[in-house]
Amino acid sequence: MSAQAPAFTQAPWSSGQVSPHAYCVLAPNPGPMTLDGTNTWVVMAPDGDEAIVVDPGPLDEAHLAEVLRVVTERGARVTETILTHGHLDHSEAGPRFGELTGSRVRAVGRGHDDLGDGDLVTAAGVDLRVVATPGHTSDSISFALEADRALLTGDMILGRGTTVVAHPDGELAAYLASLERIRALTGGGEVTAILPGHGPVIPDAAAMVEFYRLHRAERLDQVRAALADGAGQEDDPVEGVLRRVYSSVPEAVWPAARLSIRAQLDYLRS
C-alpha cells in the first residue's frame, strides 16, 4: 500500500497566530520548491517583551518590515534571529534583519554564535531547544517549542508534500536518522504539532512523521526496482531512475528529484 499524506496537509496557508507562542509571517516567495512561500516564525510569550525570529527568509524589505510590525505591535523587540539551515529562501535576509533589529544571527556554522544540539535559545518567557536534524542539508536543525509541544522543522518536514535530500550536502542516512529522532519526540508526547518551513501547520506530528518514513521506504524500493530494470546500466542512472520512478512528478521539481535520486543511489551503495 502506498503511503498516504494526511488530508489536512492540503489546507490553504497564510500568515497568522498558530499557537500561544508562535506567529507565522509568510514570505512573498511562492514556487514549486517553496510552496506558499517561506514561513518566518515569530516566537514569544503572550505577554513577553522579547521575541525570537526563526528564518527571516529571502531578502525582501517589505517582508522584513511586516515581521517587525508583528513584533512591535505586541510591545516587543527581537533579541535572537536563528536559522534552521543555510538555504537562501530561509537565510538570505539574516544579515539585514540583524542590522534592523540589533539581534545576533545564529545557526550551525556561525563561529562563536554556532548553535548545537540541545542548546537553548531564550527570550522573555519562552525557550527554543535545538534538535539536530541533518539530512536535508548537513546544517539542518529543528527547534522544540516545548511550551506548545511543537517542533519548528525548517525543510526537514514540510506542511505539504515531501522534502528533498539536497545531495551532496544532504545525506539520506542522516535524514532517516533525523526522522527517527523526531518520531521519538512525537511518540513520547513532547511534540504533537509541527511548524514547518513551508506550508501549513501539521497538527498531528506523529501521523506526518509516519507518512514521511513510509514514503522514504517506498521510494527506496522503487529505486531498487528501477535499478533492477536496467537504470543502473544506463550512461546516466539518475536519469534512468527519474524516468521510471518520478515520471508523474511535475517537471518543475525534477531538479530537486535528481538531487534526491543521487542521495538514494549513494545510500544504496553504502
Could you write a compact summary of the structure shown?
The protein has seven helices and eleven strands.
How would you describe this structure to a colleague?
The protein has 270 residues and is α/β, with parallel strands linked by helices. It has a single domain, classed as Ribonuclease Z/Hydroxyacylglutathione hydrolase-like (Metallo-beta-lactamase, Chain A, 4-Layer Sandwich), CATH 3.60.15.10. It is 33% helix and 20% strand. The strands form two sheets. It has a six-stranded mixed sheet, with helices on one face. Helix 4 (172-187) packs antiparallel against helix 5 (205-228), helix 5 (205-228) packs across helix 6 and helix 6 crosses helix 7. The model has no long low-confidence stretch (mean pLDDT 94).
Net shape: elongated
* CATH T-level fold name: Metallo-beta-lactamase, Chain A
N-C termini distance: 27 Å
Return the CATH architecture: 4-Layer Sandwich
Question: What average pLDDT do the residues reach?
Answer: 94
State the CATH class: Alpha Beta
- The helicity comes to 25-40%
Multimeric organization: single chain
Rg measurement, Å: 19 Å
Biggest sheet features:
6 strands, mixed
Number of strands: 11
Adjacency order of strands in the biggest sheet: 1-2-3-4-5-6
Helix-strand layout with pairing:
Elements: E1 16-19, E2 22-26, E3 39-43, E4 50-54, H1 61-72, E5 77-82, H2 88-91, H3 94-101, E6 104-106, E7 120-123, E8 126-132, E9 141-145, E10 150-154, H4 172-187, E11 193-196, H5 205-228, H6 237-245, H7 254-269
Parallel strand pairs: 4-5, 5-6, 10-11
Antiparallel strand pairs: 1-2, 2-3, 3-4, 7-8, 8-9, 9-10
